[in-house]
Amino acid sequence: MYGCGMELITIGLAAFATSILSALAGLGGGIVLLVVLTQFFTPTVAIPIHGSIQLVSNGSRAAMLVDKIKWSAVGWSAILLLPASLLGVAVATAMPEAATRLLIGLFVLVVAWKPSLLKWRGADQLPDKALIGVGGVSGFLNTTVGASGPVTSPFFKAATATHVAFVATAGAAQVLAHGSKIVAFSLDDFAIGDHLGVIGTGAIAVTLGSFVGTRLLGRVSDAHLDTLFKVVLTVLAVRLIGRALLSF
Question: What residue segments make up the domains of the chain, in order of their start?
């Protein structure tokens, strides 16, 4: 079990930095943190730990931008979250550990280099009711590959009028998504109490990151964020894939 020394420091710093990234861009930080956690834990442990930390990260960001949240979009997206999360846990726990690591690594590379494959291509603002299906996808991906933001965020962006409203609304929706993830894994015998040190460290770090990030909104170049995002994700994903292939 991990939870002391350099592991806690590394996870704490990663949680802080990735929370700033999410606050600035509205997505991205969570998947970086997930890949960091999979360096230390098996995927079926890393994913619910990630969910616990990200619940705090998204919750703190949503609380700081609460007046910008589009609640109707959040409500429609929540309808299928829990059943989809339960299905995702059943799939994730049935897969070999190496296969799950490989799947997460490949998903991360697509997010980094071919995000256009995940984007919504509609021209008009997305109706809130269309987010029912988006919530189902979010629940399933959150519990299988560990993150859904890169897939679902374009839909929330299409359903909101401004970038700040998108960041706030996506954050609120992810609070419910990660809550469903934790419930689903807990019903499958994940013992959250065994990992309170890591979760607590990450929770404090992401709250500080949200505070810093929300105050930097609009002040950091999107191009610089994109470059950093790609480099970090690629390095972590390649390491994860290599580890998975060596395990087969």
Answer: 5-247
